[in-house]
Amino acid sequence: MESRQRRKRGPRVGRSWNLVLAGLSLACFSIAAQSQPDASRSTPEQEFQAAMAARDRGDLERAASMLENLRRHHPGLFAVDESLGLIYVAQEKYSDALPVLQAAVREQPASDVAHSNLGADLFKLKRNREALAEYSEAARLNPQNPMTQQGLGELLLNAGKPDQAAEAFTRAVSARPNDSDLKLSLATALVAAGNFDRAQMILAGFPNSENSADVQVLLGQVEEGKGHPVEAARAFERAVQLEPTEANVWMLGVEFLRHWTFDAAIPEFEAATQEFPQSIRMKLALGAAYFGDQKYAQAVPVFADLLETDKDDALYAELLGMACNAVTESDRPRCSTLLAYAEAHPRDAKASTAAAEMLLTAEQSGHRTDEARQLLVNALAADPKLANAQFEMGQLKQDEGNWKGSIPNLETAVRLKPDLAQAHYRLALAYWRSGRKEEAQAQMALQKKYSQQEQQDLDRRLREITVFVMDVKR
User: How does pLDDT run across 418-440, given as a tens digit for each residue?
Assistant: First the structure.
């Protein structure tokens, strides 16, 4: 089950600055002030208050400069370090904020807010594991802080721990029961954890849920999780009507793709590729939908475009190879992209094999036999255990009249993939031509046994493709 697609919101930075610093400034600076006998000079506390005044006026540069100066002359003051760190965060100087907030945690290790603020900065720096450790410590110190629990829940969900995330969000919701964002986060975690009944109960409590795209997306995931695809599609459609974002359109299209309703998926993804031309996953899904609906000629240019955009992507090459070899039309101009890829990537055995197969099955391909042979040589050098490459090489030898020479390749192919029906058929022909009648009859029997396997193999690969597409995040 995919997690709900929405704008990612990182853990929030602690409480307000005034609350963070309340009760600290006077205590921190009273001792420092005693070391300044000159009454004409400002005390550290006065300098700190001036920096806070500059911050309150929105002059963050001035406030930071004053705090930096104060920190140089009076190191080790928690209020200064915490304030300066938070100003850096507000300026999006997350790397600068890190050592300062770390110092604040060392100075006040029992401050849950200090740990939360450090965790939020670490999250901004994409150091999620360390951020999670800081939020966990903050929650241990003060489990009643809803903002800490919210940040902890987001990080746990990001870490693939939806059950624990749901516990954190539950604690946050209990402290702020009217916070709709928190309830949505809780429902998201519950859906990810597979707790669909409880998620549905929470979503049912949302007022005017019919007009909330976020709620409809989650309801769609709940219905899908409970085995109700029609209801799921209806909810996703409603979400698209409310907010036709790329993420919501994706959820609807994937719902159709998941259940192989390709005729419904195709128009969704056709429109989506026009509306969101930069979305790679929409194009990939459109190609998969065409392929699933046996519209191979339409799938070819989609996969070819993807491969031309990313000329080193082995998956795109494999998908293009499958589509090109499924097309029945003799003219397959965009399949030249596959040949170019195979020639540039001789170690990609699957692509080389698919390109060779395409050349060998094309009409009037005799003049390209040498090219196909070289592709198969490359494939077998890269992966001698690739059954399809062994089969294609055996078939090529038979097409040239080398029946005896084809036997080792075909024997290897059926050993590697016993249910490869075409290999059994070709091996039977080779045995028959070599006078091995009984072995030929045995191979023909195996060919009949596995003849249904080819469609099953196609269905299995199609299922793998659709699963992969549903996991694409781009």
Answer: 999 999 999 999 999 999 999 99
CA angle 347, 353, 358 (to 5 degrees): 135
Maximum Cα interatomic distance, the chain, rounded to a whole number of Å:
114
- SS3 assignment, position 274: helix
List the one residue out of 403, 412, 408, 440 whose CA is nearest residue 425. 440
Per residue in 313-331, pLDDT (tens digit) is 999 999 999 999 988 766 6
The token duo for 286 is: 């459109």
User: What is the sign, positive or negative, of the torsion defined by CA atoms of 452, 455, 460, 463?
Assistant: negative
pTM of the model: 0.76
184 by Cβ neighbours in 10 Å (0-12 / 13-18 / 19+) ranks as: buried
CB atoms within 10 A of CB 158: 17
User: For the chain, which domains are there?
Assistant: 1-162 (1.25.40.10), 386-454 (1.25.40.10)
User: Measured in Å, how far apart are the chain's first and last C-alpha atoms?
Assistant: 17
3-class secondary-structure state, position 159: coil
Which regions of the chain are under pLDDT 70? 1-41, 329-331, 363-367, 453-456, 458, 462, 471-474
Tokens standing for residue 115: 């740990």
Q: Position of tokens 């209020």? A: 79
Structure tokens at 76: 């080790």
